[in-house]
Specification:
7-stranded mixed β-sheet; 13 helices; single chain; binds nicotinamide-adenine-dinucleotide; alpha/beta; globular; 369 residues; 6-stranded parallel β-sheet
């Protein structure tokens, strides 16, 4: 499989294009992989190995351009450095993307080729599933590399699909945010809008419904909406309405960049607590949320449950009970951020970024959004 370390992002643009991208933010390594027999085209970004090998999932998405894929993998990879540092895991930050439509372009051979690509980094990057990839896909990856987690786990063992573990962390973090902002210690009657009811959103709905929360849900996949409405008595709402609903909590569990200059003036929720990575389009959008009186639970802190599970699985010998105990630390970590943000009159995302930078030893590095 031919590999090259750098690539022209757009026709006519030079190598400096990637270094100059604001998402680059001091990445240690960005590698492009192509496997002709399977058509695999993938990018691995290693943001930091300061705290350990770079760990983060592999997203499969039909990016419209290489530029879009590079931008996404860099943003996600940087987020993983902060996520792993804030969760106290012995991992640096990295991420991979496979360019392709997960509904049409998957094959066991493609994931085996991806595994060889991961293996070529000799353990500097550890992969797992993310949007568009599954536990079954990772079992194909595991045929060609040992640097993979998120595989099937026996009952009671650590590991397996990270989605339910991410949902647990989001549920516990959401409760902490509701307590902090609304002064409520339970969720009975609390209204929650959930954007995206896939792997994480579905499990989150189940936990919230069990606590008596009233759910409004939206998803571009009608079957996913019908499933949660049927199982958890959720109310379906239109995809273009969900962000602006008058609810206590908004839980973005679909895409990144949904909190931006267009959407923030329309928001009516008082708490934002969801699973999606990179919810803020730009760092300064966090200040706009604070000015609007909305408490934002920083995404990479609240959604760390999955990588906590991956970490325990990868290092071996752990039980599911230990994973759950680790995830139970998420609300405390968030409350610390909320309190510090209130004390210092700063946005929660700025406080989290500063704490993450301190843990990474990057105090002087300016984080660009
Ligand atoms: P998923 O692909 O299983 O679910 C995402 C859902 O969002 C899908 O049902 C999809 O149809 C829906 N969706 C897409 N565009 C939408 C739109 N415009 N409006 C409404 N719904 C839309 O992914 P997932 O594993 O549930 O992850 C959800 C988010 O959480 C992603 O941003 C992911 O990066 C993040 N995350 C996931 C994990 C994990 O363990 N799976 C961990 C950390 C962060």
């Amino acid at each position: 499989m031919p590999l090259c370390k750098w690539w022209l992002v757009r026709p006519g643009a030079g190598l400096m294009e990637i270094f100059d991208m604001r998402e680059f933010d001091g990445h240690e390594q960005v590698v492009f992989g192509h496997d002709a027999p399977t058509g695999m085209r993938a990018i691995i970004a290693v943001h930091s190995t300061a705290l350990g090998p770079a760990a983060g999932g592999c997203r499969m998405w039909p990016y419209a351009s290489t530029h879009e894929a590079v931008s996404d993998v860099l943003r996600l990879s940087r987020g993983m450095s902060y996520k792993n540092a804030m969760a106290g895991l012995p991992f640096g930050g990295g991420k991979a993307v496979i360019i392709g439509d997960s509904r049409k372009a998957k094959s066991p051979e493609l994931f085996e080729a991806f595994g060889r690509f991961v293996d070529s980094l000799g353990g500097r990057y550890i992969t797992a599933e993310d949007v568009g990839t599954t536990t079954a896909d990772m079992s194909h990856v595991a045929r060609t590399t040992q640097y993979v987690a998120g595989l099937g786990a026996e009952p009671g063992e650590a590991g397996g699909d990270p989605g339910p573990k991410t949902a647990l962390g989001v549920y516990l973090g959401l409760k902490a945010a509701v307590k902090f902002r609304l002064g409520r210690s339970d969720l009975k009657g609390t209204t929650v809008a959930i954007q995206g009811v896939g792997g994480v959103g579905y499990h989150l709905c189940g936990m919230l419904a069990a606590d008596g929360a009233e759910l409004a849900v939206a998803d571009v996949r009608q079957a996913a909406v019908e499933r949660v409405c049927g199982e958890f008595k959720a109310r379906p709402v239109a995809v273009d309405e969900v962000l602006g609903l008058d609810v206590d909590v908004l839980a973005p569990c679909a895409l990144g960049g949904v909190l931006n200059t267009q959407s923030i003036p329309r928001l009516r929720a008082r708490v934002i607590a969801g699973a999606a990575n990179n919810q803020l389009a730009h760092g300064q959008d966090g200040a706009a949320l604070t000015a609007a009186g909305i408490l934002y639970a920083p995404d990479y802190v609240i959604n760390a449950g999955g990588i906590i599970s991956v970490s325990r699985e990868y290092h071996g010998g752990a039980t599911e009970a230990q994973v759950i105990a680790d995830i139970q630390a998420i609300p405390q970590r968030l409350t610390e951020i909320f309190e510090r943000a209130r004390r210092e009159n700063r946005p929660t995302n700025a406080v989290a970024d500063q704490m993450g930078r301190e843990r990474l030893g990057r105090q002087t590095h300016k984080l660009v959004a």
